[in-house]
């Protein structure tokens, strides 16, 4: 057989990706074509419904095959009420999709894998866990849309689980069940530690939140590991909810005014996925530039993560285990009561220590295939990934936005332009609506990247990574909100031109009308009285009033007795300085003049007692303009 020219592979893969990004409208032919690309065998059948069930509900009716219609066209209606069934068959999964009158009426999934209970509970994303929708319901919702876009993404996940699974019980279905169980175990451990140290937050004069507020953040996923979820919104699989922009403002609006903001409806998730480029690395692969794509296996040594991390509430885990003495099939305490018969290592974490070691060959093989997809993407320093030993990742750029669209990234043009300028000049001057000019400087020593996917086999470092990502989520929210308060006639492109030409911002941008200090923050909200509709209203004026009058002023009033106006800055003198510095992987310094604060654990901490109120305002409003 002639060899394939490698120069043709890249454009062919690109064409294939384009076709997969445009899977077409919902129809039997489109689903068959898509399924065949992902390796499923497809076949169709014509079925009839008995009349003794509820009309239109396939599950409650007896379905039998009409052999006389086996050769009839799809959607034929010669006899009674007919159902056209499209079956997608893999090596593990069988997916049946029923069409009634040309509309998808039902989706059912059966699996050849029998998941074993762990401590009496089955963590099965196919069937749903902890009250979440099963996968078949998510797929049914996908197929009732006009296009196959979201169904395409979920079908790809299912095809990867089907094709890439090792032999049971080391298949990916059992692996994700065990992964969910161990994440729950870590979460319970952190919850216990937080209960023991809750009062420490209240007693800490530098902490902006008290113990009760930190506990609520933990329960909602904004502190510690995050909130463990399955099958969220229109996506299937395992998720960690780690952040929500403007969360304190959102709570106020929800609890006091009965409205939900866009941030509540689209929080920050980590979506656990599988990469197909695993098992074996070549030297060429390791030398490739991984920044814009390409994922390969992390070595088993890095998956073990033999270095020990200190016990703390937000981390609370360490990696232990002598690789020469711990056996893969140990059943004490690594295997649980329900899984002892299978002989697999189910418990990876116990009382603050990770038990994963180099002898866990099958487990490490699955861990090496793990990919974290950030929904939405997050701006972080590139060096942060290196500190965690992560070399395989994908970033969002203008060149690959089309291919990396995860349908949860929101339009963030202002912040994207902002970091584009920061990467070029390390600093940027902004003039606010009040007339004040500030100079924002990033002292981080590396480019900022908009991270989208990370190949992540080092489960022992997950808590640390989540904490670091959460800190940058908060800083990005502070910057995003600050950009909303820049002068109305001031665009970042004009800032760029002024900096490159050596002119001042005051010369490049005309002054705003005196006395026009109106601040407007546009946010999409939906009424809680109409949650089921899923429709969103644009209540910009209402939200402006709620945010500024009811929420932000409540916290800003804390500074009234200490706040003084910087007259020289407003008169056009040297701008105020705001510096950002990454002290540690889990800390960000925020320096304003002589005032130094730090962002840690998704909160702002003050350096001294005088700045506690300032830290509280930044934490609860995420508005830098309130302290400038």
From TrEMBL:
Residues covered by the Mediator complex subunit Med1 domain: 16-482
Compositionally biased tracts (Low complexity): 516-531
Protein name, entry field: Mediator of RNA polymerase II transcription subunit 1
Key words, A-Z: Activator, Nucleus, Transcription, Transcription regulation
Principal location listed in the UniProt entry: nucleus
Polar residues composition-biased segments: 314-327
Chain spans, region Disordered: 314-337, 516-536
Function recorded in the entry: Component of the Mediator complex, a coactivator involved in the regulated transcription of nearly all RNA polymerase II-dependent genes. Mediator functions as a bridge to convey information from gene-specific regulatory proteins to the basal RNA polymerase II transcription machinery. Mediator is recruited to promoters by direct interactions with regulatory proteins and serves as a scaffold for the assembly of a functional preinitiation complex with RNA polymerase II and the general transcription factors.
PANTHER family: MEDIATOR OF RNA POLYMERASE II TRANSCRIPTION SUBUNIT 1
InterPro entries documented for this protein: Mediator_Med1
